[in-house]
Automatic annotation (TrEMBL):
Keywords tagged on the record: ATP-binding, DNA replication, DNA-binding, Metal-binding, Nucleotide-binding, Primosome, Zinc
Record function comment: Initiates the restart of stalled replication forks, which reloads the replicative helicase on sites other than the origin of replication. Recognizes and binds to abandoned replication forks and remodels them to uncover a helicase loading site. Promotes assembly of the primosome at these replication forks.
Family annotation (PANTHER family): PRIMOSOMAL PROTEIN N
Oligomer status and interactors: Component of the replication restart primosome.
Cofactor(s) needed by this chain: Zn(2+)
Limits of the Primosomal protein N' 3' DNA-binding domain: 3-97
Organism: Micromonospora zhanjiangensis
Protein name: Probable replication restart protein PriA
Biased composition regions of type Low complexity, renumbered to the chain: 123-161
Cofactor note: Binds 2 zinc ions per subunit.
Length: 681
């Protein structure tokens, strides 16, 4: 039932009325009476009889005869709910989009599936429920899809590229062509792919998805955002033509999203691509799951039970016996763990290929640079960065400048004593939104026109942190006559034409340049490296590699200047373009310190009384270490529970049971339970 209460997170048995016997099939949406109310739910299974000895109620009505929940997705949703100490109903809300009746009517299947058995009770009852038997439900309908190729068939479709042509795109990686041939041959290889600089990753993903479809199997690929999705959509269309895949994203709108979902559910298309919700997309005979840039925090679902798209896909691959592809310029600690345990093999280029394809990376904090430019240690844009930008513009090539902060001056301080400027009302940081704007608070928005420093009484302000718009303004004055563009949250550029220009972008909003950038400048690196976050170094390298990958190879004049000390491990990984080494180093350190992914951690956030109440009722398994409490949001605290990976399932089950006790008691104050949250610190 679609009820977000942990103590009701189980299947219930109901009788199926005779008039609904033909249409009430596993996977359909239904309405039932429960505790005097009409609630929605999903029909999981039809069986001849019920093990419940009490009286059973009847299904109230059938919302739609469309079986939107496939048996595979039902099993996956249950596994994800168990993994994250959540409720099945919450996961199903993420997996199955809201119904759109008009779309269902306009895309009626050409062939109605056989009716379900009519022997008596189907799942759901008001007591004595038995475990869900989703694995015994009817197979997904493939109406409208036509006969699928035989499993293992690798013959190309009419006019499509041959398998060898698909594998040729992976020739830069010694094991890449074999991986593609294994997909086309119906096998299920699992790989962690470290993409080269300048790699056309959408084309490589399209080749892997197409090779899987050639074997008569389905494939699902998940990317972080809409811009990546547009690129992958274009690559798939160029390779296999329109109609061979659908795009599934919440940004499509209710009708388009539900239409794409139904096309996949009915087997009309073998390939589904999308953002994180597409990880649950129903496809027939799943053969491959793929995720690009799994370290991006956009893959983390902000709604309960807060699953991560990478973990959803890997769980799905494990349950379905499907292939997996985890790709990116950087490598997360979780991806490194897959390689270390042998669950997946790495697909990487040789060092010779790396040297030929990567740009030349130069740090500004090395001794030779300091000898030439003593101000390089403190300058925001040292002479080395200026020279690289001038050389690129002189060669009629664009320049990319990555700035971690958006806005104009997102933080200011007293010009006399350097004390941070704070709002007199809420103590939030003051900022300037333009050169002529008055200082305003970042938190409450109040304008402080008569600001006076409480430390020294000074009234002049200076920049403490420089944003993207101010950087663009400064560069426009430094390079008169050169077009300067910005790309950030307000406006994300998709592509930059060739020719001399300067692009100032925040991390994640860097546009692709035709022919590649002649120079990439990574400024204010301290803002990424000094974040109070367990993944600060990993995130910094991921952002830098994503920007540096857009530069031209060193042989074509490509330069990357990182304003940081070259002795830092993060900078060393960038200099050598060796994300695998850095990921292994990070994983080793986290294992020594007892942090994910080497261990599993759960976070409990709520008022002190609510957290204490949950801890009082939870039966923690052996080996769980309780850490905290630490302050969280206003009036709340946070407790951390740490356990070995082998004990993760028991901990999640214990937390779910404790949440069930509290919901049964109708506890007034909720506790937010998150397993392996991204923000531990």
């Amino acid at each position: 039932m679609d009820v977000p209460l942990a103590h009701l997170d189980r299947p219930f048995d109901y009788l199926v009325p005779a008039e609904l016997a033909d249409d009430a099939r596993p996977g359909t949406r239904v309405k039932v009476r429960f505790a005097g109310q009409l609630v929605g739910g999903w029909l999981l299974e039809r069986v001849p009889s019920s093990e419940h000895g009490g009286r059973l109620a009847y299904l109230d009505r059938l919302v739609s005869p469309e079986p939107v929940l496939s048996p595979e997705i039902a099993r996956l949703a249950r596994a994800v709910a168990d993994r994250y100490a959540g409720n099945l109903a919450d996961v199903l809300r993420l997996a199955v989009p809201p119904r759109h009746a008009r779309v269902e009517r306009e895309t009626v299947p050409s062939e109605k599936p056989q009716p379900a058995p009519t022997g008596g009770a189907g799942p759901a009852s008001t007591g004595g429920a038995e475990p869900a038997r989703a694995s015994g439900a009817e197979p997904a309908s493939t109406s409208g899809a036509g006969p699928a190729p035989a499993r293992g068939s690798a013959s190309p479709a009419a006019g499509g590229p041959a398998v060898d042509d698909l594998a040729a795109g992976w020739a830069a990686y010694p094991t890449g062509p074999a991986y593609l041939r294994a997909l086309a041959g119906g096998r299920s290889p699992r790989a962690v792919w470290s993409a080269l600089a300048g790699e056309n990753w959408p084309a490589r993903f399209a080749e892997a998805l197409t090779a899987t479809a050639r074997s008569g199997r389905g494939a699902v690929a998940v990317v972080p955002d809409a811009r990546d999705l547009d690129r992958l959509d274009a690559a798939l269309t160029a390779l296999s033509g329109a109609g061979g895949h659908v795009v599934l994203s919440a940004a499509l709108g209710p009708a388009k999203r539900y239409r794409a979902f139904l096309a996949a559910r009915r087997g009309a298309v073998p390939v589904v691509i999308g953002t994180r919700a597409a990880g649950f997309a129903p496809v027939d005979r799943l053969g491959l799951v793929a995720v690009w840039d799994d370290g991006d925090d956009l893959h983390a679902e902000p709604r309960a039970p807060y699953p991560h798209a990478r973990d959803v896909l890997l769980t799905r691959a494990q349950l379905a016996g499907a292939a997996a592809l985890v790709g990116g310029y950087a490598r997360s600690g979780e991806a490194q763990l897959l390689v270390e345990t042998g669950w997946a093999k790495e697909v990487v280029a040789t060092r010779e290929t790396l040297r030929a394809r990567t740009p030349k990376v130069l740090p500004t904090g090395d001794d030779p640079q300091l000898a030439r430019d003593p101000a390089a240690a403190t300058a925001r844009l040292p002479s080395l960065a200026w020279e690289a930008a001038r050389a690129a513009l002189k060669a009629d090539a664009p320049v990319l400048v990555q700035v971690p902060r958006r806005g104009y001056l997102p933080s200011v301080s007293c010009a006399d004593c350097r004390a941070p400027a704070r709002c007199a009302h809420c103590a939030g940081p003051l900022a300037l939104r333009s050169a002529r704007a008055l200082p305003a608070c970042h938190w409450c928005g109040r304008v402080d026109a008569a600001y006076a420093c409480p430390e020294c009484g000074g009234r002049r302000l200076r920049a403490a942190v420089t944003g993207a718009r101010r950087t663009a303004e400064e560069l426009g004055r430094a390079f008169p006559g050169v077009p300067v563009r910005t790309s950030g949250r307000e406006e994300v550029l998709a592509e930059v034409p060739g020719g001399a220009s300067v692009v100032v972008a925040t991390p994640g909003a860097e546009p692709v340049a035709v022919g590649g950038y002649g120079a990439v400048l990574l400024l204010d690196t301290w803002a990424l490296l000094t974040r109070a976050d367990l993944r600060a170094s990993e995130e910094a390298l991921r952002r830098w590699l994503a920007a540096a990958a857009l530069a031209r190879p060193a042989g074509d004049g490509g330069r990357v200047v990182v304003v940081a000390d070259g002795g830092l491990a993060t900078v060393q990984a960038l200099l050598r373009w060796d994300p695998a080494w850095f990921a292994d180093r990070e994983l080793t350190e986290r294992r020594e310190l007892g942090f994910p992914p080497a261990v599993r951690m759960a976070s409990l956030t709520g008022t002190p009384e609510a957290v204490a109440d949950l801890l009082a009722v939870v039966r923690l398994p052996a080996g769980v270490e309780v850490l905290g409490p630490v302050p969280a949001a206003e009036g709340q605290e946070r407790m951390l529970l740490r356990v070995a990976r082998s004990g993760a399932a028991a901990l999640a089950r214990a937390l779910h049971d404790a949440a069930g006790v509290r919901t049964a008691r109708k506890a007034a104050q909720p506790v937010r339970v998150q397993v392996d949250p991204l923000d531990l610190l």
